[in-house]
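Hello forum,

I keep getting stuck at the same step: I have a sequence, I want structure tokens, and every attempt I make locally crashes halfway through. Rather than fight my setup again tonight, could one of you with a working pipeline run this one for me? It's a single chain of 330 residues.
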Amino acid sequence: MSNEISKFQDPGLPAHQHRKSDHDPKAEKRAEQQVAILFLLSAISTVGTVASYIFIKPGKFVFLPIMGDVDAQQLFLGLGLAFSLLFIGFGAVQWARRLMPDEEVIAERHEFRSEDADRKDFVDTVKERAGTVGLGRRSLIKRSLGLALGLVGITPLVMLRDLGPLPKKQLETTSWAAGTRLVTDPGDRPLRPEDLEVGSVAQVLPFLAQGEERTLENIGKDAVLLIRLRPEEFQLDSKRLSWTHDGIIAFSKICSHMGCAVALYEQQTKHLLCPCHQSTFDVTRAAKVIFGPAARPLPQLAITVDSEGYLVAQQGFTEPIGPSFWERSS
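Reply #2:
Ran it on my machine without issues. Output:
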């Protein structure tokens, strides 16, 4: 009977094992250096992130066995930022495990809300014990942590450059000009009006002369959607109507909200939909915004046919394509 009772007795807690760094100055110094090294690795990773953004141009690809071709800039931006945050986390964990105060406190269960006196004592204790963390006297950790956190904070500021202003007013010019033929993407095949049925959609790019090559930047800016309706379905003023041909209307494919590709067309409602943030444009009313965060319609490309019956641009876009930017607030 006594043996059975002993099995259910409270065995108590094992004696607290103090860490080596609590009583060995060399171990403490070594732990401090390890934490600082982790913070320095974070800082180096952040510098690598910024360098990738500056020196690796978009459109350069590297081959990874698992992922295939990957944009090099995006790859190293992601890896650099991930490692910078990872090493800060590792350093903080190592600091807490090996250097911060290591004392066990046992508190009896009590009601959820402490008494006012206990709450006041807690606040006073926190203020009193804040210095025991050791940040004030551990200058190496303090400086390396400040370096790591400071550089990580700079990273988003550097990348905000993508919001503008853009050099050379890039969004105000495209490859479209008067007489430029519309060719299919992919395929580079010139189109005639009869190639499009009512209700159909085609993505097109400007024709390139022999020897010219498309760049990712130009493809992103030049992409246009052709949509064919019945002419009587348009609700356009005379100027906009003159930019169509035989029921065919052309709009920039780049959403005027954040620059995503407007890729969905609802044939019954005649609405274009951006899948990123659900901005919706009415094709019959010159891509007027009827829903979502976009602030302005999709730019319309004026089209006609040339002497051989192929669809061509009457002129380039008369307004910047794509999202709003610093030089343009609406």
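The radius of gyration is 32 Å. If your local run keeps crashing, start a new thread with the error log.
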